[in-house]
Amino acid sequence: MKRNIVIAAVTAAALIGGGTATALATTGDDDPGTTRQSDVRDRDDDARGAADDRADDDADDRDDSRDHDRDRDDRDDDRDDDARASSAKVTAAEAVAAALKEAPGTAVSAELDEEDGDDDGDDRERAVWEVDVLAGDGTWHSVWIDPGTGKVLGSETDDEDDTDEVRAALKGTSVDAAEAAKAAAGRGTVTSVELDEDGYRGDGVAAWEVETTSPGKGEQDWRVDVKSGKVTADRSHHSDSDDADDSGSDDD
């Protein structure tokens, strides 16, 4: 009787142990035929993360490339401006004087710029002074001056819609475009001078805006008072400029 009870107990234990082993075998991690969904999700997340990282790296590389191209273009523009300025034998003041002989009036701007080709079929770009003149009858003229000889290369009549504003800004002024250019010439080679009828950040106080270029400093912007000829750094373009306000005029 006791022997039968022992056998029954051993059999039951074997059945229970076998069932447990079977259950473990069915749900175990080492079964090569079973893949957990969480493992699949983890691998998918890792793949997506790696793809996103590559996309971000590619975008950063493109941004760096564009920044490099812009910096290179800016350096090229500075070199072009320096080259034009250094090759010009005629100053801004002299270009204004020559233009006023061709088209009498008030010079409102003068800029050393590039012109595409000429009448002789030469397609190469060349430097030229372009002077805008407001005549007494309200007619606008653009006059082109050779920066090497001071010769008038041509002129044309323009239509402008800000004649009244320009006349109001010029009223009561004692410093003209040529004198403004001379005042700023001590800061570098003047490459442009233009009347700002709206004033500093739209304050309505007119001034001459003058741009200069010089070795080591590149382009700089200045404001010349239309009454006193006082030259100050144009902080609307360079808010962090360290240049102190300068007074008086510098003659060539």
Draw up the topology in text.
Layout: H1 2-27, H2 37-87, H3 92-102, E1 106-116, E2 125-134, E3 140-145, E4 152-158, H4 163-170, H5 177-184, E5 189-196, E6 207-214, E7 218-225, E8 231-233
Antiparallel strand pairs: 1-2, 1-5, 2-3, 3-4, 5-6, 6-7, 7-8
Helix pairs in contact: 3-5
Question: What is this structure, in a nutshell?
Answer:
With 252 residues, the protein is α+β, with helices and mostly antiparallel strands.
Backbone shape: elongated
Q: Tell me the strand percentage band.
A: 15-25%
Order of helices and strands: HHHEEEEHHEEEE
Average pLDDT reading = 75
Q: What's the arrangement of strands in the largest beta sheet?
A: 4-3-2-1-5-6-7-8
**Strand count, sense and closure of the main sheet?**
8 strands, antiparallel
> What low-confidence regions span 5 or more consecutive residues with pLDDT below 50?
1-30, 238-252
Question: What does this 3D model show about the protein?
Answer:
This protein is of the alpha+beta class and 252 residues long. Helix content is 41%, strand content 24%. The chain has 5 helices and 8 strands. It has helices spanning 2-27, 37-87, 92-102, 163-170, 177-184; strands at 106-116, 125-134, 140-145, 152-158, 189-196, 207-214, 218-225, 231-233. An 8-stranded antiparallel sheet has the order 4-3-2-1-5-6-7-8. Strand 1 and strand 2 (125-134) form a beta hairpin. The longest helix has 51 residues, at 37-87. Mean pLDDT is 75; it is low at 1-30 and 238-252.
